[in-house]
């Protein structure tokens, strides 16, 4: 779907299935590779999106992901109708996690999700309301 | 180090990617927490883990890793192997424990590699 000089990719993230979590990020990685972006840019976008996707599956019963590719930047928007984040400051701390123990046995819940998303992107904006949902917008400049 | 040498050092079975064993790897990471792999590893070629789910393969793919070694005798399910095959990632299975597997590779010159800076 081409709108002016933006290319949009849209995904519905299934919240019930941890096994398929990350599929959208893998697809984005392949699409960006075909579009000819550098390995570093592709890695930053796909890791940030992957962490966000995992977060939506763990905490919010899934949601929607949009990736907008512009000539000079890549924007990742992750929106869910989950429980919201009561304390963003804490959530941004490396090592802080509210994930249940069974998630840790799957290799996640180390409290590195949001810190990794911040680390790999040029900007991150989190709009969240307890009981309503969360929208995370990340930008990686090209 | 060639992936073929890892097979020898860890007495590992090759579950997929037989044709990629001559690929060179420069560094390794031993970890069961995937977010730590995503945080601290860059250009790491080998992931050594005891975790056996599809997210291990996706994590390795995100970080452009070339090879995953499952330790402690764990054998990943077929769908996990198929995912790696699609992504061009070699899967090895070894009976060594994580500590010993890492030690053997490190002692033979495979380093921990660099860390992603903030």
> Quick one: how many beta strands of chain B?
5
CATH topology name of chain B: Udp-n-acetylmuramoylalanyl-d-glutamate--2,6- Diaminopimelate Ligase, Chain: A, domain 1
Tell me the Rg of chain B in angstroms.
12 Å
Give the % helix of chain A: 25-40%
CATH architecture of chain B: 3-Layer(aba) Sandwich
- CATH fold node name of chain A: Heat Shock Protein 90
Q: Assign an overall shape of chain A.
A: globular
Distance from N terminus to C terminus of chain A (CA atoms, Å) equals: 20 Å
What fraction of the residues of chain A are assigned to beta strands by DSSP? 25-35%
Instruction: Say which CATH homologous superfamily of chain A is assigned.
Output: Histidine kinase-like ATPase, C-terminal domain
**Helical run tally of chain A:** 5
Q: Order of strands across the widest beta sheet of chain A? A: 1-2-3-4-6-5
Summary keywords:
heterodimer; A: 142 residues; alpha+beta; Heat Shock Protein 90; six-stranded antiparallel beta sheet; 6 strands; 35% helix; B: 118 residues; alpha/beta; Udp-n-acetylmuramoylalanyl-d-glutamate--2,6- Diaminopimelate Ligase, Chain: A, domain 1; five-stranded mixed beta sheet
């Amino acid at each position: 779907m081409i709108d002016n000089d933006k290319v949009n990719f849209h995904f519905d993230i299934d919240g019930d299935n941890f096994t398929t979590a990350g599929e959208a990020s893998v697809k984005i990685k392949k699409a960006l590779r075909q579009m000819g972006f550098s390995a570093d840019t592709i890695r930053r976008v796909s890791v940030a999106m992957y962490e966000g996707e995992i977060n939506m599956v763990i905490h919010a019963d899934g949601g929607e992901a949009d990736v907008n590719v512009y000539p000079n930047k890549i924007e990742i928007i992750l929106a869910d109708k989950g429980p919201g984040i009561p304390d963003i400051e804490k959530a941004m701390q490396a090592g802080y996690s509210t994930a249940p123990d069974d998630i840790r046995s799957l290799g996640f819940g180390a409290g590195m999700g949001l810190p990794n998303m911040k680390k790999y992107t040029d900007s991150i904006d989190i709009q969240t309301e307890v009981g309503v949902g969360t929208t995370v917008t990340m930008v990686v400049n090209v | 180090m060639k992936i073929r040498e890892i097979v020898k050092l860890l007495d590992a079975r090759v579950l997929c990617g037989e044709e990629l064993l001559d690929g060179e790897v420069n560094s390794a990471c031993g970890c069961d927490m995937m977010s730590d792999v995503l945080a601290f590893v860059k250009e790491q070629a080998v992931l050594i883990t005891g975790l056996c789910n599809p997210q291990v393969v996706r994590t390795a793919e995100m970080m452009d890793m070339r090879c995953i070694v499952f330790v402690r005798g764990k054998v990943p399910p077929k769908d996990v192997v198929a995912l790696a095959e699609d992504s061009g990632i070699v899967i090895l299975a070894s009976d060594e424990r994580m500590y010993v597997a890492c030690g053997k590779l490190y002692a033979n010159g495979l380093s921990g590699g660099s860390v992603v800076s903030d």
